[in-house]
Amino acid sequence: MTFPSEPEAVGRDLPRRDGAVKVLGTATYAYETPLANAAYLHAVQATIARGRVTALDTAAAEALDGVVAVLTPGNAERLASTEDRELAVLQGEEVAFRGQVVALVVADSSEVARHGAALVRVEYAQQPHDAELRADREDLYAPESVNPDLPTDTSEGDVDAALAAAEVSVEETYTTAMYHNNPLEPHATAALWDPAGEGFLTLWDSTQGVHPTRTALASVFGLDEAQLRVVCPYVGGGFGSKGQPHVNVVLAAMAARAVPGRPVRLALTRQQMFSLTGYRTPTIQRCRLGADRDGTITAIAVDVVELTSRIKEFAEQSGVPARMMYASPNRSTTHRLAALDVPVPSWMRAPGECPGMFGPEVAMDELAERLGLDPVELRIRNEPAVEPGSGKPFSSRNLVGCLREGAVRFGWAERDPRPGVRRRGDWLVGTGVAASTYPVSRMPKSTATIRREGERYAVEIGAADLGTGTWTTLAQIAADALGVTVALVDVRIGDTDYPMASVAGGSSGMTTWGSAVVEAAGAFRAKYGSEPPDGAEASGSVQPADDRHAMHAFGAQFAEAHVHLDTGEVRVPRLLGVFAAGRIINPRTARSQFIGGMTMGLSMALHEQSVLDPRTGHVVNHDLAGYHITANADVGAIEAYWLAEDDPHVNAMGSKGIGEIGIVGTAAAVSNAVWHACGVRVRDLPITLDKVLHALEERPRH
Amino acid sequence: MQREITVRVDGTARPLTVDTRTTLLDALRERLGITSPKKGCDHGQCGACTVLSGGRRVLSCLTLAVTQDGAEVVTAEGLAPGAAGAGQQLEGGLHPVQRAFVDCDALQCGYCTPGQVVSAVGALDEFAAGWPSAVTEGPGAPGLDRAEVAERMSGNLCRCAAYVNIVTAVLRAATSLPAGPTAGKEVDG
Questions:
Q1: According to the model, what pLDDT value does residue B180 have?
Q2: Domains of chain B, each with CATH number or no CATH
Q3: Is the model's pTM score more than 0.95?
Q4: Could you tell me which PANTHER family the record lists for this protein (chain B) (predicted)?
């Protein structure tokens, strides 16, 4: 289907349509759905990391005034499918990780539910657990594939021989921490089971995909999809953790079916989210780079060790970006996992690319240092002509443009490459750069319906807006595809009553849903012409992607870091990113995506770290006081720019996804800037003051 | 233990019976159905539940409802008179801080936003009263700049990380000055 080459609405700086209801607080999130006489749920969690529940005493809880029911493995309904062991809650006595749900209290108020949960007595037969990730474990294994379905290992040429022959090389190990998504809205579900007939389940769930959630829940409960409706107009953040249903959805549905006709509400506590809603695995990345004296890379090798849970595998694809970033005749990448007695890891913003561009992009800086070459120039010198590995031409690749433009805007040209020589007051000052990339993904299925309603056009699709701007940007795409003004277009999303839409994940939303909208508009115009009658309606679905091209977005991130001479405190007063991500649908919401991603990258660089105590299998800093995310005063100037990029291959709009690339490379740019400031290579995130202090102590003071 | 109290919320007297363990946040959200204040952490760590009580910003998750008998509580929904039910009406019913948040795209998912907005209103009142912050230098009334706003707004976490836009919005609301660019920029590569 065609899309205008010079669109009117797409590219316009329009305020987000959901702005007013969000600043007022009247946008309704899942838990807030008005439901009369709702019961409240509170989960009881295991206090051991491995073993069996041997006794569950619910008498005191059941005797509490206001408790409606206590669900346990002994009385909870048997699920139709327990294939997804993360979702197979209350189906047996086995405990597979600390924090696993072992009982659920249903009560007339949230206070009583919580009180009741505290009264449930659980006894365990504890078994030795293993929750420690180390690269030298003997039980590391190669998964069959890595997320989403990529090869576990790749090998081209002879890396070892090339490294042995390399004039300059880097061989270092880098680590990223365990991270928790921590959307501000906790994972929450309201549910109502209408027992009439075959029964009908309505779920108001905070989810990045109403249709995928419906499919998963229908399978778990053995329901026909026609017996399930999932509603989610607003999502209070997800960053991947609401991309797949977690146990809260199953618990709410189970409780609703235990009290037919009565709605129930469940919001996990912030603390519970650290064991029940996914997280990013820590990574150990051994990176090896070899190069000729002129800076031509001859070998790239990245070997990643990560964890997964014993009950459900998630293999983060952290070695994947090294497969295509730079040219090299010799290359290998591997992924190895340790299956541990830990909560189930899952998607977090830019899985693979985010952690996987930390090690290699710091290694590039170290290689530039050893070569005596500017790190911007080193990257430019190793531009591949086609995508390494596949040999496919890039649909567009403007990494070099991003690096050059960013260098100009950041003032890179005046940079003295020597580390530790700039002092401003009590602070050492440095600058660093790193590259960003993120693939262009298109999900195979999504359908949109367009209908004339009076003078207006309604666009319906079960898409999600997690703050990304979908309410606004889909209207812009529809307006141009229909050839009408955007003010005439109403968008309806977030409900399985609308046509099927894919998950908001992998930065695939606009490519997938936008393409469906363009197809629907084409069908609508083909059917009704320019004068459609009231009620005229047509649908269209996303078509298969171009598979002749390699499609990725690129970017360059520049950081300024200050390191305090006495305390080692690290501050980042300035971040600047330049991105090449196809056509930008809405420059206002797009900028928010970029700066939001960059700020989350800053948070990863300096603050975030889930501390898992291997002795207990417990994340000890399991709240927002212990798990630091950037606060307002941690953030200085953040600038985001993008290059004009005309890519006819990605989709009809020419757009690439932008929700994730902003977080990719940021932490490496900050680490490289910290090295430039104080001369310490911090290869283990986060960059806390204890990691630089030793070098400052050895430094002459004046 | 139950107690009968009356709280004025957004200008309306709301009598209610509460469990003495009930927080102001849960009383608003679960008893009165006023869900503009959000629950992000329930421990006073994120600021999403911020409301004004007696004109000062408080964390409603750390405030027991029984202590608010007779109090005047204002949520983001009630900041602008006649704002309730304003829905999609951008032109009417928004407080200048709310208008600035929309104009500057100082929000994404929107979950922390009501708390941010209320906190900004409270912070600007504190600033107008001459209260110093941790970054105020020297004696005398503080000047309003990005560092002051960022410091005063740091009790409100935003995981989408709209911080730079939040600072711009608060400054714009406070000073009516043209603030920094809010749309991103295409540049010649």
A1: 45
A2: 2-78 (3.10.20.30), 96-175 (1.10.150.120)
A3: yes
A4: OXIDOREDUCTASE WITH IRON-SULFUR SUBUNIT, OXIDOREDUCTASE, IRON-SULPHUR BINDING SUBUNIT-RELATED-RELATED
